[in-house]
Amino acid sequence: MNKIINRYIFREIALPFIIILFVLTFVLLMGKILQIMDLMVNKGIRVLDIGHLIVLIMPNFMLFTIPIALLVSILIAMGRLSADNEITVLKASGVSLLQLSYPVAVASLMAFACAMVIGYFLVPQSNFASKRLLFELASQNAGIGIKEKVFNADFKGLLLYADTVPADGESMENVIISDSRVLGEQNTILAKKAFLVADPKLMILKLRLEDGSIHTVGKDLKNYRKVDFKSYDINLDLSSTFASFTDESKSSTEMTLSELLERMKKPALADAVVRELAIEVHKKFSIPLSCLFFALLAIPLGITHHRAVKSRGFAVGLIIVAAYYLLRIGGEALVENGRMDPALGVWAPNVLFALLGVFLFYLAHREISVSQTLIAIFQGEKPRG
User: In this predicted model, what pLDDT tens digit does every residue of 223-243 receive, in sequence order?
Assistant: First the structure.
């Protein structure tokens, strides 16, 4: 009998979980659609490469959508069972709330395991792989946007003009470059030939110029300097094109746990860097564990006789998620500023929600009204139950 009930409740959770997970992940992906379409339409990136990029950024989304989908699906499932008086019938048949929680615990443990694998293994690897892929795409397709006799401003701080671009697109002839990367100094570079050079190890894309000269005019327009060269390399900044997908200042997100711990042991690291690495170490465990705390909190909150089960489940879930992530973001900000210990800043939301979940679950198990309990506490009385 218990196995039938467990399978029934588990199915009630599983279907909404799959639907909500798909919808939330798609919504987050929509935030990248404009940048992805720009890469495909204006930068000449192939559809196959776009699909590969989407696959690589999915683990980052799923790490956050799995706990949220679990929370909302449990609220909806428990709310429907309660609204249809099925929980009342089960309790009258001798099934306790603790027994009803077994399938919820199994679902939360499965979600925790998935989030743990994604956060521990897939996210660092996918972040690094997406960075590699974007560099390869930049190396292969940077020349696509360079057309002859057209000014090109795709590279930050540089305005490039090529008089002739051969059909193969591998080189440019009679090149003029306006270089404004150095404040207060404007350089004009002339070269007979130029071509792109990629360094896969350092992930640097260079524009190599041959047989040219650099012309520099002083800020006061009184000084002029000319330098001739046989070969001259310019590092290209592709942040204007790819900044939406990569963030080089957050290199800790590309590291596994062992790499983070090893990096933290290196001497002479700045305190801000150590705090950033410590935050990433704690997040690898705190985010997956939020699945368990959300499940513990969702069971008592989902038991209600409200008729609008789905809308209420979404509303309550949204409030819980917003509160959790606001606390987490605030804690991380305090850690980054050096005002709070990394462990306290990252784990405080989990601890608070775990305590709240245990408290509400106890009240629901003893069938004690939350409102009556709060009134009794404020009046200094012992709650009835």
Answer: 788 899 999 988 876 554 454
Q: Report residue 203's pLDDT band, with 50, 70 and 90 as the boundaries.
A: low
3-state secondary structure the chain: CHHHHHHHHHHHHHHHHHHHHHHHHHHHHHHHHHHHHHHHHCCCCCHHHHHHHHHHHHHHHHHHHHHHHHHHHHHHHHHHHHHCCHHHHHHHCCCCHHHHHHHHHHHHHHHHHHHHHHHHHHHHHHHHHHHHHHHHHHHHHCCCCCCCCCEECCCCCEEEEEEECCCCCCCEEEEEEEECCCCCCEEEEEEEEEEEEEECCCCEEEEEEEEEEEEEECCCCCCEEEEEEEEEEEECCCHHHHCCCCCHHHHHHHCCHHHHHHHHCCCCCCHHHHHHHHHHHHHHHHHHHHHHHHHHHHHHHHCCCCCCHHHHHHHHHHHHHHHHHHHHHHHHHHHHCCCCCHHHHHHHHHHHHHHHHHHHHHHHHCCCCHHHHHHHHHHCCCCCC
Instruction: Residue 277: count other Cβ atoms within 10 Å of its Cβ.
Output: 21
Spatial contact of 32 and 245, defined as CB atoms under 8 Å apart = yes
Each residue's pLDDT tens digit, 132-164:
787 777 666 555 557 778 888 777 788 888 888
CA distances, 89 to each of 2, 79, 291, 317, 380 (Å): 14, 14, 28, 26, 35
**Tokens for 367?**
């069938």
Query: Can you tell me the distance from the alpha carbon of 265 to that of 35, in angstroms, rounded to the nearest whole number?
Result: 38
Instruction: Kindly report the backbone phi and psi dihedral angles of residue 267, in degrees, each rounded to the nearest multiple of 5, phi listed first.
Output: -75, 165
Q: Could you state, in order of their start, the residue ranges of all structural domains in the chain? A: 2-138+250-379, 151-237
Structure tokens at 169: 């697109």
| Pairing of β 204-217 and β 186-199 | antiparallel
Q: Which of 205, 197, 203 is nearest to 254 (CA)?
A: 203
- Classify the C-alpha dihedral 232-180-134-172 as positive or negative: negative
